[in-house]
Design goal:
The complex is a heterodimer.
Chain A (H helix, E strand, L loop, with lengths): L1 H47 L5 H20 L7 H22 L2 H4 L25
Chain B lengths: L1 H33 L9 H27 L5 H23 L4 E6 L3 E6 L1 H27 L1 H9 L1
Antiparallel strand pairs in B: 1-2
The chains are: A mainly alpha, B mainly alpha.
Chain lengths: 133, 156
């Protein structure tokens, strides 16, 4: 059983090895590039920020605090609280405008009881002469 | 409710990352350095160096983990911070190498010494991280292109 498992592992190792060999011309330069970049960045940190932990602690705290603030403002499952207030105000304003459109100002004009002609503040209808008291 | 849930998730993952990137390595190296009689050739300066870089990059990784995991699913900010976190993870892994933790020299009495070089293992990790960087860049592009659709689905 153990020898069978060993055979199986050997087959897997050969497959993985052949894939890696096939990809080597592509992967190796990319890996070398990443190593160069990381080494340069690490060297920068070592030269300039390698004496005190204060910088790293401050960055960590800033990340956490800003994360909290960003989540309060933009939680993701609804519009951000700052914008939602603005949107709410705009919607409220739109509703008012729409509401005022809906109200027909013609209805508010005083009309004659008999003929329906607008009479305004006049006590007698100018069209049919009916009194509006 | 969404914000509280996100932040809770962020704090949990920050804790996990802090444990795995700072606490466990620190405890491990402190134990190794404190055990008398181990055939390891590490000096006090190496010890300080290793501890310093582990804590430094561990803190950055943990902070970024909070931002990443507290961000809404499929959001652009999550993708951006995931990318930054992978890059900082590369630095964290690399810190093992440049602090000297990847080269362990064993001294055997009346025999000599030998050095265990773990750099190749770190290089494999770097390869994995590079593939992860590609995935994260793809995520950023995907989330940016489908931003409106994702937002609509999330806010339903």
């Amino acid at each position: 059983m153990i020898f069978q498992v060993m055979d199986f592992l050997e087959i897997i190792a050969e497959i993985v090895g052949s894939i890696l060999l096939f990809l080597k011309p592509i992967v190796s330069p990319i890996g070398a590039f990443l190593v160069d970049v990381t080494t340069a960045a690490a060297q920068f940190f070592k030269d300039n920020l390698g004496t005190s932990l204060t910088f790293y602690i401050v960055i960590c705290v800033i990340l956490v605090v800003s994360g909290i603030i960003v989540n309060i403002i933009w939680p993701g499952d609804r519009p951000g609280s700052i914008f939602s207030k603005g949107v709410g105000k705009i919607e409220e304003f739109d509703d008012k405008i729409e509401g005022s459109d809906d109200e027909d100002f013609v209805d508010e004009v005083k009309r004659c009881k008999d003929c329906g002609n607008p009479v305004g503040d006049s006590e007698i209808c100018p069209l049919c002469g009916a009194r509006q008291i | 409710m969404g914000a509280v849930k996100n932040m809770l998730k962020g704090f949990i993952f920050t804790g996990i990352y802090a444990v795995f990137t700072v606490v466990i390595p620190l405890v491990f190296f402190t134990l190794i350095f404190s055990i008398e009689g181990l055939p390891l050739e590490w000096e006090q300066q190496d010890q300080n160096n290793i501890m310093f870089w582990l804590v430094a990059f561990g803190l950055l990784v943990s902070g970024l983990a909070f931002f990443k995991y507290s961000s809404p699913k499929q959001s652009i900010r999550k993708a951006v911070f995931a990318l930054i976190q992978v890059i900082v993870n590369c630095l964290y892994i690399w810190s093992y190498r440049f602090s000297g933790a990847a080269e362990v020299t064993f001294v055997i009495l009346d025999f000599g010494f030998f050095t265990l070089d773990l750099s190749q293992m770190l290089l494999i990790y770097m390869g994995v991280y590079f593939l992860t960087i590609i995935l994260r860049v793809y995520d950023i592009i995907d989330f940016t292109i489908n931003r409106e659709k994702i937002r609509e689905n999330r806010m339903k």
